[in-house]
Amino acid sequence: MAAALAWLAAACLLFAAQVACEYGMVHVISETGSPRGKDYCILYNPQWAHLPHDLSKASLLQLRDWTTSTLCSPSDLPAKGFSNQIPLVTRGNCTFYDKVRLAQGSGAHGLLIVSKETLVPPGGNKTQYEEIGIPVALLSHKDMLDIFKSFGRAVRAALYAPHEPMLDYNMVIIFVMAVGTVALGGYWAGSRDVKKYMKHKRDDGPEKQEDEAVDVTPVMTCVFVVMCCSMLVLLYYFYDHLVYVIIGIFCLASSTGLYSCLSPLVQRLPFGKCRVCDNSLPYFHKFPQVRMLLLAVFCVAVSVVWGVFRNEDQWAWILQDALGIAFCLYMLKTIRLPTFKDASAQACTLLLLVLFIYDVFFVFITPFLTKSGNSIMVEVATGPADSATHEKLPMVLKVPRLNTSPLALCDRPFSLLGFGDILVPGLLVAYCHRFDVQVQSSRVYFVACTIAYGIGLLVTFMALALMQRGQPALLYLVPCTLITSGALALWRRELGMFWTGSGFAKDIPQPPWAPASAEGPQPLKDSEVVLPQQPPGEAQVKPTLPAEQPPELADPQNVAGVSAQEPTSPANCTLESTGLPGTSV
Question: What is the distance between the alpha carbons of residues 385 and 370, in angstroms, rounded to a whole number?
């Protein structure tokens, strides 16, 4: 019992000893130039002194460069002190308390400690906090150099910490892009597969694959999840080496997706239909059209431009989002279930539930397994803080924060949504569209599942605002889409068909005839046989068969029952079928 109390007391002390830290801003303007200023990120401890939330209430004081000193002893102070100034000093050689105590004693109204290392909150103890009455914060060395380069040495600065908004306006942009991609991709994939199914049923032959498709089976689902887990762990430990591999894969896949999305539009253009001349080059031996060749060059060029300028935060995110949406549409069109009889909610549910567990585990469980206490998923998605390359993974939709806030300036300037949060629910949306067409339900399943996806995304945004930490979006998207689709099927008394995919087994009514072969001629129906009216006393001749009929039937001299001297009545005129005897008109 005593040991348990000791552990509890130690835990309480450890919790109490944690240093409070918040992001703030230092607003810098030039004393001699334009009044237009710029904000820089600072990390401060509100236990020393609170910062005003409004810039208009913050004092604009002279920023004095004293980085040649660490300010650890009275000898480091200037002769006239820091009266009504905010000094910049170098980090190191003594505690934060020693520095801020000397600065406060010399008349400073604030202290900025310049650090070349990762910013850490300036800590102290309760007695020290009560003694100090001026704010103290850490500023990165890079930002300090930018301040003096942009504004010169004569500058003024104000320290403040505006409130973080609950939600940023960029969430509206991400919502529209995500829901639009899921709706368009699901509609495109469903329409494409339904057309293939109907053509297959009409022709009564094997389905011809016009485009390559990846058939998802339960075994492939398990292998895919294992590969995702392995790649995520490898990226966590070898991020700087593997990030360039992911960037290269994204460039190749996104250019392919952009080509797939734009090719139906380009094929409608009235020009560029001429083909490439005969040659032995790869791909060119298929004699592609000039317009399609130019489209391929354009898609590769867009991908290369993004790859070169991917770190330009002001505009490169637009190209990344465009390429990402094209990639998602391409994947939703390409990834499908093997056949319509196998295309059931069982397969969709298996895939969604497995990835649901994967997402929750790597966001909420892995912080208890890592030494740093950070989520593997969030760490990889946003890029490790200690990464030497400072590269970010491109497999996300990203939109810059539109609100001015310390968090946007210091830590996360972009809001992110992973491609998996679009592709995984998008497969269920595509299935719902196929099921709609087969049961002739006016796309009620497709619309309901798309709306449910949008609601799930809104719930994700609410959880993000309340918890102020990265969220596994599939935790909210999977239940919303699956429960909505299943409840709708139950209400319409089609749950059995929806769950097993039996709605796809309905055959289209077949005509009373069928061709002898896939390429052979088809006999005419009653309404298609027209016999010319002959004058009285003249013979009626049996209509000549098409030229592709066998020679013995196409030759008028070999047609049985036809004679110029023996008139034949229309009732006795018989067309001999090329493979189905007994077909008559």
Answer: 15
Angle at 574 between CA 569 and CA 579, to 5 degrees: 175
CA distances to 10, 42, 116, 156, 167 from 139, rounded to whole Å, are 33, 5, 9, 15, 26
CA angle 258, 262, 263 (to 5 degrees): 115
Q: Tokens standing for 499?
A: 């769950």
Residue 227: CB atoms within 10 Å = 10
Quote the tokens at residue 430.
């595509």
Angstrom distance (rounded) from CA 526 to CA 271: 43
Buried b (16+ CB within 10 A) or exposed e, 499-522: bebebbeeeeeeeeeebeeeeebe
Residues 190/430, Cβ–Cβ less than 8 Å: yes
Q: What is the Cα–Cα distance from 428 to 265, expressed in whole angstroms?
A: 26
Q: What is the CA radius of gyration of the chain?
A: 36
pLDDT of residue 348 exceeding 80, the answer is no
Catalytic site positions = 359, 421
Residues 111, 94: Cα–Cα separation, whole Å? 15
Q: Is the pTM here over 0.90, yes or no?
A: no
Stated as kind and residue range, the H or E segment containing 278 is none
Helix axes 420-439, 170-203, angle to 10 degrees: 40
- How far apart are alpha carbons 445 and 133 in whole angstroms? 63
* Type of residue found at 259: Y
| Distances, alpha carbon 308 to alpha carbons 38, 146, 235, in Å | 28, 25, 22
pLDDT tens per residue across span 465-484: 888 777 888 999 999 999 99
Q: By C-alpha distance, which of 246, 387, 400 is closest to 321?
A: 400
Residue 289: DSSP 8-state: B
Query: Over 50: is that where the pLDDT of 499 sits?
Result: yes
